[in-house]
Amino acid sequence: MKTVQVGLIGCGVMGCGLAKALTRVEGARLVVVSDPDRQAAEKLGQELGVPAVTDLGRVLRRRGLHAVIGAPPPFKHREVAVAAARAGKHLFIEKPLAACLPDADAILRAAKRARVKLMVGHVCRYHPVHRKVRDLVAEGAIGRPLLLHVYRLGGPWGGIWAKSWRLSREMSGGTLMEVNAHEIDFMRFVFGDVRSVYAAGGNFLEKRADFPDLALLTLKFQSGAMGFLHSSQVSALGGYGCRVDGHEGSLLIPSFWGEAAGVQHKRWEGENRFIPASDLKGIDAVQAELTEWIEAVRGDTPAPVSGEDGRAAVEIAEAAYASIETGRAVELGRGASGAA
Fold first, then answer.
1. Contact, 213 vs 175, CB < 8 A?
2. Domains of the chain (ranges plus CATH)?
3. What is the four-CA torsion angle of 309, 141, 148, 275, rounded to 10 degrees?
4. pLDDT tens, residue order, the chain (340 aa)
5. Residue 180 Rama label (left phi>0; alpha psi -120 to 50; beta)
6. Cα(118)–Cα(36) distance, rounded to whole angstroms?
């Protein structure tokens, strides 16, 4: 197909961002936006000059529609994705793929049966500093990977992100999915598949939530390397960075974003060099991920961030919650019942 006609389902913060980015993607055309909140849908529709509706069925029945971007709250992902797949529409689902593993599996089954493209919005793969870390590790810049330590620290939900559904693990997947699906996927992107998860954490400040607002995850990768994720909504100072150690050198990322963003690289015997983020500029990360999704649809090639990638992030987060609750490590592929 020459031009992929796309509908947006979900006009929240992320849905609006995805819709606006799609207007800059060659070979794609946004033709309708939808949200149960009529005001939200009409506001975005007027801004982008496209029809706005409140009913999912009206989107999927639209003549000539090829694909949908699904960006409702996570507990709605299964309903939206399964309906779209059954209607034969290609799918881009904002992360997390789902708020629980059964919903993720249902989405994968529906996409496979309908033979539609399914891509998950793990956008960190397209941010320049994240991508540079992955490329350096893949190129052998630090030798055999040993440790990947990532931290993402902040405070409780506020501002435009303060929605009641974000306080429910059943509806959002909790912080480990609604936020840290990004970091979990990034860690897999750099180090590969995860074998087991051990986690500790608790709820300390955000007592309205029914999930941990502080979690410390230790990951064992299939390669034998180790990972550590520090997830926090209890930090007044905040921060977002990582470090990677290998048997021939290390990478230090003081920040993925902002003035300090960049990658510091040091081999055991070599100079300490810093690559600022300003040297790594590319196109907008959201535009980049949507461009690759549209190219996969137009060229009938595999989606670069697959449904299986999205499922893996959900599985790791669920394993971490199970580990926090039981105090034991969880082997992946066996669920919470596989606690060792």
1. yes
2. 4-123+285-304 (3.40.50.720), 125-283+315-331 (3.30.360.10)
3. -100
4. 789 999 999 999 999 999 999 999 999 999 999 999 999 999 999 999 999 999 999 999 999 999 999 999 999 999 999 999 999 999 999 999 999 999 999 999 999 999 999 999 999 999 999 999 999 999 999 999 999 999 999 999 989 888 999 999 999 999 999 999 999 999 999 999 999 999 999 999 999 999 999 999 999 999 999 999 999 999 999 999 999 999 999 999 999 999 999 999 999 998 999 999 999 988 899 999 999 999 999 999 999 999 999 999 999 999 999 999 999 999 998 443 333 2
5. alpha
6. 23
Backbone φ and ψ of 230, nearest 5°: -105, 110
Q: Does residue 266 contact residue 272 with C-beta atoms inside 8 Å?
A: yes
Q: How far is CA 256 from CA 108, 142, 150, 241, 275, in A?
A: 31, 19, 10, 6, 12
Alpha helices in 118-180 (DSSP H): 128-138, 169-172, 175-178
Tell me the pTM: 0.96
What does residue 176 show for φ and ψ, rounded to 5 degrees? Answer: -65, -20
